[in-house]
Amino acid sequence: MTNEQIQSCIEECMSCMLACNNCYVACLKEEDLNMMRECIRLDRECADICGFAAQAMSTGSQYMKEICQICAETCDLCATECEKHHHDHCQRCAAACSACAKACRAMIA
Amino acid sequence: MTNEQIQSCIEECMSCMLACNNCYVACLKEEDLNMMRECIRLDRECADICGFAAQAMSTGSQYMKEICQICAETCDLCATECEKHHHDHCQRCAAACSACAKACRAMIA
Amino acid sequence: MTNEQIQSCIEECMSCMLACNNCYVACLKEEDLNMMRECIRLDRECADICGFAAQAMSTGSQYMKEICQICAETCDLCATECEKHHHDHCQRCAAACSACAKACRAMIA
Amino acid sequence: MTNEQIQSCIEECMSCMLACNNCYVACLKEEDLNMMRECIRLDRECADICGFAAQAMSTGSQYMKEICQICAETCDLCATECEKHHHDHCQRCAAACSACAKACRAMIA
């Protein structure tokens, strides 16, 4: 992994954290809340691991690869869930999650 | 503030974080999700500031008092919301939030 | 406070978190570690509150102003300490802290 | 994994986070700072993953096992480093790390 890959991965993790938190806040205001349960749960789980991965990479953690592996898998789950919903915030979140998963896997490879 | 007050406040913040996260997970599974919107939101907001306050106190942050002041106020909001709901997890969360708010104010005083 | 101010403040908090963590890692490798004690401590304290403030703003916390007030004050302390040292990482960190403190205060005003 | 194992693991992670942060603060005040570099770094890395693991378990994360695996390995590294130093805070931290690593592995098994 190069410094450029780590830097790019940090940027994507932070963008994804913001998109997930934005989606979480918006989901909690949706009229049909019942179908957003899993989206709410995964938004926060994904935001939390993205924030943690950014911190781990920027502090030079010895386990940054393993943490980014979990981050990539959580992003996949969150993207798959968000893609089911037509809301703009879900579509934007799905795109951010996919980009973050890709950056994590590029860093790990 | 004494070391005993700080230690006690750390313990209450960590207990409160767990009770809030437990309530958050259980709220997301409740049948009538519509009335749990604010409870879900405040559970996570309260869990996050409690976890941050415990970290700030245990790392000797210069702003631990100011952080615990925000923690106490967030606990008050979360306790007031949780008390509205008859679910066991909400009642337990309300009790943990009240105890945490009290410990934060004892530490600050 | 406008959405633009919040968004700008989130960006500055995340940039500052990265600069502080970078300075922290680099300080721990400096030959004369003795004079870096306070810089190491404040780097992590500042990185932690910056990360927490970014999360609080992106989740729409009711106490985002109070949290950003503490963030601004911590940034001031960290900038003042970092300015004492000639290392590039300290100078870059001081600049990021000053920018972040300014963005926090613009958001609060 | 049983609820009792998860609960016990959460408790050990939170105790370990406190011991690591306590050791971190104390290390930064030691006279011979040069030999504490790695201890300072690992204390914070371990405290961070312990706090994150406690949050992940209490929010029912789908990746709690994978996170606790990283936590156990980080605890091993921190325990090995702390055992090298005769300071009370290092010895207490080493014991907390070993207990936490054991609880994480019991939860995963």
UniProtKB/TrEMBL annotation, chains A, B, C, D:
Gene3D superfamilies: 1.20.1270.360. Pfam families: Csp. This is Four-helix bundle copper-binding protein. It comes from Paenibacillus dendrobii.
